[in-house]
């Protein structure tokens, strides 16, 4: 397998620059996920690595080779697409082995590689079926099998699970992660689903408008987001944000509610006293009832029971927030209820730059 390196990569379409300048190093055998909202440049970046999009500026290296100007077939990358891209008139066996036949490899090697891929992916009972007789998850495994037999330096996945239902997505996530472990491969994976990113990746690259906002392992992204964009994008439900003013050992909301700040955090933020900032707190760091010093009155507008817990969506100081409470916490729409904030888990952001303070 191989290291992937992008240095000063720029992508333009005419006068429009969609990737202003991108530097990214992916280590050998690492599983890296590019994540972000639609139009952030993640798929364009993947397609430039694959050679399906030309680079406007900069260089791309795979292993020791500069592949910037090489055509896709010479880069030794295997790409798995969102649409599966299977030949409908061919069997599973023929779909998996098609690329090898085109390259003129021997029949014995083709059959051996097909058998190995089918065993790894649990496709042995389906080798003589055509795609129309397969489920969505089985079709995606065929697409992955076609990638495996190439023995590539790098696997590239472009939102491969987006066409599957929720249950199949979970199953296929597990299969892809196990596959990576067995093959010890370098993987670059694109998704807009932050749950996929968090569960699959060794490192996550969070992109926004062609710019890398933060690169880190999943837990670091969750616990120490670099800015409000990352904080809002990582985590489900999304982080809550409230405009507050720092007043020494407390923060003051727009309605005058004061929430005490833990001593260590207050000391670290002492240089920002008197400033208006954004307070960030995740729904799971709130609880129903008066269980601590930082208690607010929330007016619920929507209540969403989810089994192990309930989401209470309401208004606080004129801002919509979501709290995750116990499944049987007693509350009703439009009836004020008391919610406790865990201020040890708070995040503070600059209101102008969005950066973490």
Q: How would you explain this protein's 3D organization?
A:
The chain is α+β, with helices and mostly antiparallel strands and 357 residues long. It has nine helices and 20 strands. The strands form four sheets. It has a six-stranded mixed β-sheet, with helices on both faces. The protein has a five-stranded antiparallel β-sheet with strand order 13-12-11-14-20. Helix 2 runs parallel beside helix 4 and helix 3 packs across helix 4. The mean pLDDT is 93.
**Low-confidence regions:** none
User: Could you name the CATH homologous superfamily of the domain at 240-350?
Assistant: Nucleic acid-binding proteins
Number of helices: 9
Element order, helices and strands?
EEEHEEEHHHEHEHEEHHEEEHEEEEEEE
**DSSP strand (E) fraction?**
25-35%
In CATH's first tier, which class of the domain at 240-350 applies? Mainly Beta
Number of strands: 20
The CATH topology of the domain at 240-350 is what? OB fold (Dihydrolipoamide Acetyltransferase, E2P)
Please bin the fraction of helical residues.
25-40%
Radius of gyration: 24 Å
Across the major sheet, the strand order is 6-7-8-3-9-10
Report on the biggest sheet.
6 strands, mixed
Named at the architecture level, the CATH assignment of the domain at 240-350 is Beta Barrel
**Averaged pLDDT, please?**
93
Assign an overall shape. elongated
N-to-C CA distance = 39 Å
Which structural class is indicated by helix and strand composition? Answer: alpha+beta
């Amino acid at each position: 397998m191989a290291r992937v390196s992008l240095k000063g990569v720029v992508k333009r379409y005419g006068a429009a620059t969609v990737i202003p300048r991108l530097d990214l190093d992916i280590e050998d055998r690492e599983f890296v996920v590019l994540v972000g909202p639609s139009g952030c440049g993640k798929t364009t970046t993947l397609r430039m690595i694959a050679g399906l999009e030309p680079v406007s500026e900069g260089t791309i290296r795979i292993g020791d080779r500069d592949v910037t100007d090489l055509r896709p077939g010479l880069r030794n990358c295997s790409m798995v697409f969102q649409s599966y891209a299977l030949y409908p008139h061919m069997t599973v066996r023929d779909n998996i082995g098609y690329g090898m036949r085109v390259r003129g490899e021997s029949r014995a090697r083709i059959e051996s590689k097909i058998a190995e891929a089918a065993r790894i992916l649990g496709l042995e009972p389906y080798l003589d079926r055509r795609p129309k007789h397969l489920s969505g998850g089985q079709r995606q495994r065929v697409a992955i099998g076609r990638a495996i037999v190439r023995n590539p330096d790098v696997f590239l996945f472009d939102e491969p699970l987006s066409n599957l239902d929720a249950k199949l997505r979970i199953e296929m996530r597990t299969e892809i992660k196990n596959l990576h472990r067995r093959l010890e491969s370098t993987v670059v994976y694109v998704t807009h689903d932050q749950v996929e990113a968090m569960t699959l990746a060794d490192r996550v690259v969070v992109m926004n408008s062609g710019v890398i906002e933060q690169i880190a392992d999943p837990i670091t992204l969750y616990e120490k987001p670099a800015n409000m964009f990352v904080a809002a994008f990582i985590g489900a439900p999304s982080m809550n944000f409230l405009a507050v003013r720092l007043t020494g050992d407390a923060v003051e909301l727009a309605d005058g509610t004061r929430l005490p700040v833990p001593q260590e955090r207050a000391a670290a933020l002492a240089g920002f006293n008197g400033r208006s900032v954004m307070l960030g707190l995740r729904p799971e760091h709130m609880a129903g009832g008066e269980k601590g010093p930082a208690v607010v009155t929330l007016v619920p507008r929507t209540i969403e029971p989810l089994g192990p817990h309930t989401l209470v969506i309401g208004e606080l100081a004129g801002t919509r927030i979501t709290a995750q409470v116990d499944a049987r916490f007693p509350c009703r729409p439009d009836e004020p209820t008391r919610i406790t904030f865990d201020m040890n888990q708070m995040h503070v952001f600059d209101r102008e730059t969005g950066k973490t303070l």
